[in-house]
Design goal:
With about 375 residues, the protein is of the alpha+beta class. It is built from ten helices and 16 strands. One of its GO terms (molecular function) is protein N-terminal-serine acetyltransferase activity.
Length: about 375
């Protein structure tokens, strides 16, 4: 691929110039860029930017990839970069990546640039493009979806982390014959960022919730009905919070924090697991701190979650499971309209290698109460 200017709606892709150096430094020295692009020098200097313009970017084209400046079509000023790397000619495959200057974020620059370079790559013989992001980089994953890339999973330890160690990377892929436009999300964002009935608020689980989530899921009352039994580690809780946005964007799990609408206090957690997208079925689950039980919060949570699932996700069916002895959880489900559907013998792992039965409850759109 040879460098040539690509004009598209909203951005211009062009070769780098030496008068881009100051903006390249501003972009590559930015803390957010440094956080997710582990290979960048730190500190990033003017000398690094000059080497990129004179050596790094031209070398990308020589190696069969690409490295473009993303510029404002009106002023030609640098807004960011987009490029192709790690070409695999025998597979007609490459990896696409980008960064955007802080003052140009939130304007669709990365999405427009990614779409433009992907289209150009496909017309030049590439048939598969991969886009890799850190698990916690939700903003980049939204760009991937908007540019038509589909989630394919997580590559464990695929990236070398700055300062040592390795990090997991999510994989997003677009093929040359994929339909145009954004990839449709199975799990949409919450309307207005939250669900509420005036007493209970559900919002997306965030990393800052980890202290409360660890306290919740290591409390004896919650561990008594946890599957598998026992306490999660703090590392597991942190990893869940860091990856919650990615799980949601990938259409797998919508994990939420339950808040008291008046005080804002954390009352518990809940989630919707989209276990059978082809059948329109998902599972829901919930946990409350003991202090918030017996006040209707669990039932309200289930109703809010179910209504969102039916009206916004488009589910045809919800199901939930409980241990047979967990009568309180059974009453919560029945008050929301769930119906008992049966007993699955030895479905769940128990303590010391034993197995536990699970009751199954189902809810159809017309069953929802309240």
């Amino acid at each position: 691929m040879t460098p040539e200017t690509i004009e598209t709606q909203g951005v211009r892709l062009r070769p780098f110039r030496l008068d881009d150096v100051a903006d390249i430094v501003a972009g590559c020295a930015d803390p957010l860029t440094q956080r997710f692009l582990d290979g960048l020098p730190d500190p990033y200097t003017e000398a690094d930017a000059r080497r990129w313009v004179t050596e790094g970017a031209p070398a990308a084209f020589t190696a069969g990839g690409a490295a473009y400046a993303v510029a404002d079509p009106a002023t030609d000023r640098l807004l960011g970069t987009v490029g192709l790397s790690h070409p695999v000619p025998q597979r007609r495959q490459a990896e696409i990546g980008y960064w955007v200057l802080p003052d140009a974020r939130g304007r669709g620059v990365a999405t427009a640039a990614t779409r433009a370079l992907a289209a150009y790559a496909f017309t030049s013989g590439t048939e598969r493009l991969e886009l890799l992001t850190a698990v916690e980089n939700a903003a980049s994953q939204r760009v991937a979806l908007a540019a038509g890339f589909r989630p394919e999973g997580v590559r464990r330890g695929a990236g070398a982390a700055r300062g040592g160690g390795r990090r997991d990377l999510t994989v997003w892929v677009r093929l040359a014959d994929d339909p145009p436009g954004p990839y449709p999300r199975p799990l949409p964002d919450l309307p207005g960022g939250r669900l509420t009935d005036g007493m209970v608020v559900l919002r997306r689980l965030v990393p800052e919730d980890s202290d409360e989530m660890y306290r919740l899921h290591t409390s004896p009352d919650v561990m008594a009905t946890r599957v598998p039994p026992g306490a999660p580690t703090r590392e597991e809780i942190d990893r869940r919070g860091q990856g919650a946005a990615s799980q949601w964007l990938g259409g797998r799990v919508a994990a939420m924090t339950i808040l008291d609408a008046t005080s804002g206090a954390v009352a518990g957690s809940c989630m919707l697991l989209y276990d059978q997208p082809a059948a329109g079925q998902a599972m829901l689950g919930y946990s409350l701190f003991p202090a918030w039980r017996g006040r209707g919060y669990a039932t309200r949570t289930v109703r809010l979650l179910a209504r969102w699932g039916f009206e916004h996700v488009g589910l045809a069916r919800l199901w939930a499971g409980t241990l047979p002895e967990n009568l309180a959880s059974r009453r919560v489900l029945e008050r929301a309209g769930f119906r008992y559907e049966g007993l699955l013998r030895a479905r769940l792992p128990g303590a010391d290698g034993s197995r536990a039965d699970s009751t199954v409850f189902g809810l159809l759109p017309g069953d929802l109460l309240g």
